[in-house]
Amino acid sequence: MTDPVTLMKQEVGKAAAALVESGMIVGLGTGSTTAYAIQYIGDRLNSGDLKNIVGVPTSFGAEVLAKQYGIPLTTLDAIDHIDIAIDGADEVDPRKNLIKGGGAAHTREKVVDYLANRFVVVVDAGKLVDHLGSVFPVPVEVIPMAITPVMNVIRELGGEPQLRMGVRKAGPVITDQGNMVVDVKFNSIPDPVELEKTLNNLPGVLENGIFVNCADIVLIGEVVDGQPVVRKM
Ligand code: 5RP
After folding, report:
1. CA proximity to 140, closest of 110, 95, 96
2. Distance separating alpha carbons of residues 22 and 1, to the nearest angstrom
């Protein structure tokens, strides 16, 4: 039997895929929830329900999945807009601010998601928080030679930085850009707008996982009376 979290992810992925229309340029996010959206977009394309769409992947992972499901791909050099982007999140606050980067892909995700005319976030209900940083640390992509000074300054800012280590890979996680990720736990994040800027201003930081004023629609998967349902924030 499929577990409830997987059911929620599948339903929310399907609901997001249903928002894609023929002829659109689609930003393809990264993560286990978006993977279902990519799969359903591919299914709609292969059944003839959708025509002439192209995807812009936010990671090598998204690129591999899109190829697997038969979605043609393009790059930002070849297009002048993105109609819709579909992407997951690790935390969502009531203002639709996000923490992303659980898959270490937040740098490319931020480029693609911010460019989209409509950015649709796909999450299960467990990702909703009152305040960003309640559960999930803020991922910060850092160029390798700057890891130590960046971690020192982050401590001075009140954060607890931890270098993200690989799973089934010795040593740190290396991003699609060849950098490393520092996960930073803050006691609280009273002003996400300010923290996003402060972190990105540290020399050696490429991008952090706070996304503010960017999400248009948040689709939330929930299980109600044993049935998966999707609601919109
Ligand atoms: C990757 C991300 C993901 O979208 C985020 O981690 C959510 O992933 P999942 O849907 O697997 O929970 O930001 O960098």
Report:
1. 110
2. 34
| pTM for this prediction | 0.96
Question: What are the backbone angles phi and psi of residue 198, rounded to the nearest 5°?
Answer: -60, -45
- Residues marked as catalytic: 109
How far is residue 95's CA from residue 219's CA, in Å, rounded to a whole number? Answer: 14
Q: Which long-range contacts (CB under 8 A, 24 or more apart) does 16-19 make?
A: 16/40, 16/86, 16/120, 16/122, 16/219, 17/41, 17/43, 17/44, 17/86, 19/84, 19/86, 19/118, 19/120, 19/217
- Asked if CATH classification 3.40.50.2300 holds for the domain at 139-209, the reply, yes or no, is no
Q: Is the pLDDT score of 1 beyond 80?
A: no
Pocket test for ligand 1, best of 7, 12, 32, 121 (most atoms within 8 A of CB): 32
In tens, the pLDDT along 123-152 reads 999 999 999 999 999 999 999 999 999 999
**pLDDT tens readout for residues 41-78:** 999 999 999 999 999 999 999 999 999 999 999 999 99
Pocket around ligand 1: residues whose beta carbon is below 6 Å from it?
Answer: 29-34, 87-90, 100-106, 109
CATH T-level assignment (fold) for domain 4-129+213-232:
Rossmann fold (3.40.50)
| Interval between CA 5 and ligand 1 midpoint (Å) | 14
